[in-house]
């Protein structure tokens, strides 16, 4: 039965724990900027959660990725392998470093980078030289790193990726900005690479309003990341700087919110997974769409709920749902097709076009209620019923 419904947002934060209490403590104490007990506590909580030895809090996920590339030694004219279907941040940070992206296709079952095509590219299009690094035969540039992105919370096939990267001395910098709490074969995402990066933007599974984190098991890498994110200031009193640094540290107020959110992360993931199951069950009889689902060897946090429909229905279905107060979004435009990246190298990109042309993200907030999910699904079914009656 169709009913009136207020706007159902795509993704909004859940503020129901100790956020107000901890932020007030910061305000009362006067520790509101980038130094304070909550920054340290937040770093320790995230590191412990993903079983990493060190964590460095940053102003956002993009800053975390940028600093990770720097401390991992990405240099101008290096190349970094990236997916074409992703938020633009992991590609932009490659250019921040003066390096060049090499774009890869999607896996056939998920939106994540196609690891088999990565392996084929490295084995067939690159050569390992005396310095132990892989070099792109076409450009003669060093392949210094790869940024696998765990798209919408679904983990990349990391074991195969780790094997090829170890063979060719390629650093893995995990973009886990969407996958805090997701697991690959029992291990948390963000803990597989030389560095892992998280985001705490307002629409992420936990939020600090804006924020990020670098995690690593490498002590020297963590120390340098902390140094660079505080303007490379090397004296606690004097304004002495030993290299070009960045104003990238998270504030204590934001970290206070992060601590409160971390206290509820497991609860949030339980809710997200339960809601994913509900969407799947309610949509299971609809032959016109397919829900993106986790593989058997992973546990997704289901940051976003993604469905794949035929290309002819994508825009019309989105418009139909939006007109009924249901916020939905397409996936990102393929980065290699943007004018600023059209001259960059690609490798056998095919499936990504299909995903881009057919995928829609449904409302996915932690506080999404069962009746709201029912309303979303009811309207999806009504759309296809109407189109069927039209003979489309």
Describe the structure.
The model has no long low-confidence stretch (mean pLDDT 96). The protein starts with 18 loop residues before the first helix and ends with a helix. The chain is of the alpha/beta class. Helix 2 packs parallel to helix 8. It has twelve helices and 17 strands. The longest helix is centred in the last third of the chain and has 21 residues. Strands 1, 2, 3, 4, 5, 6, 7, 10, 11 and 16 form a ten-stranded mixed sheet that branches. Strands 12-14-17-15 form a four-stranded antiparallel sheet. Helix content is 38%, strand content 16%. It has two domains: 244 residues, 3-Layer(aba) Sandwich (Aspartate Aminotransferase, domain 2); 126 residues, Aspartate Aminotransferase, domain 1.
What's the gist of this structure?
It contains twelve helices and 17 strands. The chain has 392 residues and is of the alpha/beta class.
Q: Could you name the CATH homologous superfamily of the largest domain?
A: Type I PLP-dependent aspartate aminotransferase-like (Major domain)
Average pLDDT level: 96
Number of helices: 12
Largest pleated sheet: 10 strands, mixed
Number of domains: 2
Termini Cα gap: 24 Å
Question: Which H/E pattern describes the elements?
Answer: HHEHEHEHEEEHEEEEEHHHEEEHEEHEH
- The best one-word shape is globular
Structural class determined from secondary elements: alpha/beta
What share of residues is helical?
Answer: 25-40%
Gyration radius, in Å = 22 Å
What's the CATH architecture of the largest domain?
A: 3-Layer(aba) Sandwich
Low-confidence stretches: none
User: How many β strands by DSSP?
Assistant: 17
Q: Under CATH, the topology of the largest domain is which?
A: Aspartate Aminotransferase, domain 2
């Amino acid at each position: 039965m169709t009913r009136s419904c207020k706007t159902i947002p795509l993704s909004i934060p859940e503020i129901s724990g100790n956020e107000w209490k901890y932020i007030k403590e910061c305000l009362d104490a006067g520790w509101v900027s980038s130094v304070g007990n909550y920054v340290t506590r937040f770093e320790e909580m995230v590191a412990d959660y993903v079983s990493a030895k060190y964590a460095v809090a940053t102003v956002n996920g993009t800053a975390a990725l940028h600093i990770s590339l720097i401390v991992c030694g990405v240099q101008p004219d290096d190349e970094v392998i990236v997916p074409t279907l992703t938020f633009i941040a992991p590609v932009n940070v490659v250019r921040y470093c003066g390096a060049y992206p090499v774009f890869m296709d999607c896996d056939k079952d998920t939106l994540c980078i196609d690891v088999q095509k990565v392996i084929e590219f490295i084995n067939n299009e690159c050569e390992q030289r005396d310095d132990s690094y892989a070099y792109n035969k076409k450009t003669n540039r060093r392949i210094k790193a790869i940024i696998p992105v765990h798209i919408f919370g679904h983990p990349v096939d990391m074991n195969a990726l780790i094997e090829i990267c170890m063979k060719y001395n390629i650093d893995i910098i995990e973009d886990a900005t969407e996958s805090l709490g997701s697991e690959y074969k029992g291990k948390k995402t963000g803990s597989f690479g030389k560095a892992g990066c998280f985001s705490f933007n307002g629409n992420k599974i936990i939020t600090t309003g804006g924020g990020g984190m670098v995690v690593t098991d490498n002590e020297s890498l963590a120390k340098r990341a902390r140094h660079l994110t505080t303007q490379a200031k090397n004296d606690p009193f004097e304004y002495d700087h030993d290299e070009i640094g960045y104003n990238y540290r998270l504030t204590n107020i934001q970290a206070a919110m992060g601590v409160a959110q971390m206290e509820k992360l497991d609860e949030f993931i339980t809710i997200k997974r339960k809601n994913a199951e509900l969407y799947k069950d309610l949509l299971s009889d609809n032959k016109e769409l397919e829900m993106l689902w986790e593989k058997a060897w992973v546990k997704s946090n289901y940051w976003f709920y993604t469905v794949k429909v035929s290309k002819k229905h994508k825009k019309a279905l989105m418009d139909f749902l939006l007109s009924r107060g249901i916020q939905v979004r397409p996936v990102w435009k393929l980065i290699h097709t943007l004018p600023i990246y059209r001259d960059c190298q690609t490798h056998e990109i095919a499936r990504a076009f299909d995903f881009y042309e057919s995928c829609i993200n449904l409302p996915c907030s932690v506080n999404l209620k069962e009746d709201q999910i029912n309303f979303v699904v009811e309207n999806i079914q009504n759309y296809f019923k109407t189109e069927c009656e039209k003979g489309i």
